Amino acid sequence: MLPATSHTPSDRELIDRVLKQDPQAFRLVIRQSERMVAQVVHKMVDDEEDRRDMAQEIYLKVYRKLGSFRFESKLTTWICQLAYSSCIDYLRKKKIRPVVSGLSGRENEYGESNTPGIDIATADPGPDEQLARKQMTGRLKDGIAALPPVYRTVITLFHNEEMSYAEIMEITGLPAGTIKSYLARARKTLRENLFPNQLKKE
Fold first, then answer.
1. I want to staple 33 with a disulfide (CB 3.0 to 4.6 A). Which of 79, 91, 144, 157 is the partner?
2. Looking at residue 3, what DSSP letter applies?
3. CATH 1.10.10.10 fits 127-201, yes or no
4. CB 41 within 8 A of CB 28
C-alpha cells in the first residue's frame, strides 16, 4: 500500500509498487496520466464507445509493459506515447488518414505560418464581450474537431497541455520541423474558418 502521507512517489517507486501487485499504486499511475491520455484519445478518436475501449486498451498495455519502462522519460510521457501509437493503429485499422496533406497555409523555413495566431482573450470583458467569447470558443472547438486527427493532437498538446516541441516529439515520434509545420497549418486553417472576412481584407 502507498503510505498515507503527502509524499508523492517517484516514477521508480510507483513502478516498483505496481510490479509488486499493489493495486493502489496502479490507480495512482492512472490518476496522474488520465487527463493527458484523454486529451490524446478524444482528439484522435471520434466515436465515443471507441474512445472508452481505447482508454481501457491503453492502460492494459501500460500494465503489461510497465516492467520494460527504461526511465529515459517521465512515466506520463511514456504513457502518452503508448496512447498516441494506439490511436494511430486504430486510425489505420479504420482506414482513417491521421494527416490530410495539402491543408491551406504556407510556412516559412522554420515551419511558422505568416498568419497571426488566434487570441480571443481580453481583459475584464463586459456582457457583450463575454457572449462573443463564448460563441468564439464554441466555434474554435468545432474548428479543432474538424482538423485531421494528428493536427488536433499536436495543437492540443502544445496549447492545452503546454508541452514543448521536445515533449511532443517524444510522444509522437515526429520531427520538430513537422510539428511546427502541423501547428502552423492547423492555426491557419482555424483562422481561415473563424475569420474569413478579416483574411479577405488582408
1. 79
2. -
3. yes
4. no
Q: Enumerate the domain spans of the chain.
A: 11-93, 127-201
C-alpha cell of residue 190: 482555424
What sign for the dihedral angle of Cα 95, 97, 102, 104?
A: positive
C-alpha closest to that of 86 among 40, 134, 121, 119: 40
Residue 10, all three cell numbers: 517517484
Do the first three CATH levels of 11-93 and 127-201 match, i.e. the same topology? no
Distances (CA, A) of 201 to 143, 193, 196, 198: 21, 14, 9, 5
Tens-binned pLDDT, residue by residue, of the chain (202 aa): 555 455 788 999 999 999 999 999 999 999 999 999 999 999 899 899 999 999 999 999 999 999 999 998 999 999 999 999 999 999 988 887 776 443 333 333 333 333 334 444 444 566 666 666 666 666 777 888 888 899 999 998 998 888 999 999 999 999 999 999 999 999 888 888 777 655 455 4
Angle at CA of residue 51, ends 45 and 54, nearest 5°: 100
CATH 3.40.50.620 fits 11-93, yes or no: no
To the nearest 10 degrees (0 to 180), the angle between helices 48-65 and 23-44 is 140
Question: Cell digits for 178?
Answer: 513537422
